Amino acid sequence: MAARGFRGLLVCTGLLVVTPALSATSADRDACAASAGKPDLGGAACGRIIDDAGEAAAARVEALKNRGRRFFDIKDFDRAIADYSEAVRLSPDDAWALAHRCEAYEGKEDHDAAIADCTAAIRIDPKNGWAYNNRGVAYYGLHNYDAALADHAEAIRIDSRDAWAHARHGMAWMEKGEFDRAIADLTEAVTIDPKYAFGFGQRGQALFRKRLITKKGGWEPAIADYSEAIKLDPNLVWLYSSRGVAYSNNRQYDLAIPDCSEVIRREPGNSSGYNCLGVAYEGLKDYGRAIAGYDQSIGINPRNGVTYWNRGNAYWILAFKDPGKLNDAIRDFDRAIAINPKDFNSFNSRGKAYAAKGDRNHAIADYTQAIQLNPSYVEAYDNRGLTSEALGRRAEAIADFRTAQSIDKDDPVSKQQLRLFGF
């Protein structure tokens, strides 16, 4: 018995022997280099180079950057950041590593860390369009759309054929309510790259929001762009929810609900699918199911201001029968504004809710804020004009209706009101 126990001890002791790391081979170097941009390849080979203390620092830096890119591509942002950080430690002036760590921080929505890294990359390499673009994305995440525009414009100046820069430039214009400029940028992006699914999807967003806010154009062009994007890349799940919402606005609910359901089928934890269903049920005037959809969307992602805006609008409609719902609407618009203080839609909608409560001064303040954020917002001028008229402020009302007409001569509200004033 004692002998068996002794042999067991020897076996256990043998398990504690540390095997030296294998040296990297030329095949590892080739495999690691070939893995850039291919998340399914090269991880082990890059790891052997990184772990080989005998490898030159430059070779380890390249391996770290390749493996970091691999981690980024599978959305393992923390491990990507760790690899890029080690690359920066070994090579502090590596603008590529800094710009890509910036991108990984942005993947975690750590906008400030992203901006710091991209700024450092630009300081080292002022011609690094990737760094300008990624910093622009971070500024966009902070709702600093002017800074985003400036960075993407610089990226375009560095490379006028940079489709991503044109697309992101257009997205920043979209958030400022400059929809025609957004569409022009996004059209340039898909002209440069006719197979650019993201570009077509974002142009669909710009066309959709132009129709939603300005009442100009139809829903069909947006739907066509979403459909083209889906054809080019069926794995971009957000396209289905976007097209579903567009179908709902076009009263094609039989097409909207399957698109919304496709998002939920593929990604049950994706909040946009439930928001999409909420919009469809709201269009069908099934407000109970609409609000349930919005509730589920918010439960998954409480930082999506659009869903609060949608639910607030549903409460606003319900308030025609139950005035107490106005308070629910205002709370939702408050939340949307807290998430994005530049959300001119929510300011305009909250103004309408205040006006319905008879709080016209609060309403005018909200319409004014919406106009400051989007000086081309015809509906906000009309709403402020109507509220000023109700307060007996005739001159202010006329001024707002005239401004609305100067922006859109076909706007029926301002045209009718000016006619009633004798103009």
TrEMBL record:
Listed SUPFAM superfamilies: TPR-like (SSF48452)
Entry superkingdom: Bacteria
Repeat region (TPR), residues: 61-94, 129-162, 163-196, 271-304, 344-377
Keyword field: Repeat, Signal, TPR repeat
Pfam families: TPR_1 (PF00515), TPR_11 (PF13414), TPR_16 (PF13432), TPR_8 (PF13181)
InterPro entries the record matches: TPR-like_helical_dom_sf, TPR_rpt, Ycf3
SMART domains linked to this entry: TPR
Keyword flag Disulfide bond: no
Alphabetized PANTHER family for the sequence: TETRATRICOPEPTIDE REPEAT PROTEIN 6 (PTHR44858), UDP-N-ACETYLGLUCOSAMINE--PEPTIDE N-ACETYLGLUCOSAMINYLTRANSFERASE SPINDLY-RELATED (PTHR44858:SF1)
Designated name of the protein: Tetratricopeptide repeat protein
Organism whose genome encodes this protein: Bradyrhizobium jicamae
